[in-house]
Each structure stands twice: as structure tokens, then as C-alpha cells.
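Problem 12. The chain below contains 112 residues. Write out its predicted structure in C-alpha cell notation.
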Amino acid sequence: MNFKVIGSFILAAGLLSACGNGLEEGERVTLTDSISGGYTIHDYKEMEQQAIETGTWENNGETTSMLFEDYEYKITEISEKDGMVLLKAMEGSDEGTEVWVKMAELQAATEQ
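Solution.
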């Protein structure tokens, strides 16, 4: 019984935090820290699982990429269900590239 109550509380807290994420599609953000992302949500989750298992996150350039600090990105899509945000690079050599990142990581690495 306690596990159901705890599980429900965690789910409710997650939903509440996702609803109040303060991010909007079309918004432009500048990173204050570099973060990693995946070209698809699936790619990101696979690399995240591998990082959990090995203790190391490796951006391979094929399915994952690094987003660099001091660059501007545009939020093109938000997946509340997955807690992910699709960012499009607005400058630099990766201009136009779109990468999925975790909402929490984006929020921690942006000036808003």
C-alpha cells in the first residue's frame, strides 16, 4: 500500500512540475552551461541508459550531440509526456540542427 501512495505522490509531483515548466515553443534561450542531447527522444534515452550502466556519457555525433554554452537555441517542440524539449541551433556551425534535451537540464542551463 505504501508503494502505491509514494508512487502516486511522485507521479503527481512530476505532472505538476511539467505543467509549470515555464518553457514555450518559439522561445529563444541562451545556454549558460553546455548540455547533451539526442537527435530523437529514443536516441537520448538510449544514451542516458548507457551512461547509467557505464558511468560515462559519450556524444557520438551520430545519435547524440553537445549543445554549447553562450549559443542561442529556439524551442521548436515540447514533449510534456517525455519531459523533453526539442532545441534548434540558431547560430554557429551547427545552425539549424535540432536536438532533444531534458526540460530540467535546459532549465538549469539557461538564462531566462
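Discussion. The CA atoms of residues 33 and 109 lie 5 Å apart. Students who got a different answer should revisit the alignment rule from Section 12.3.
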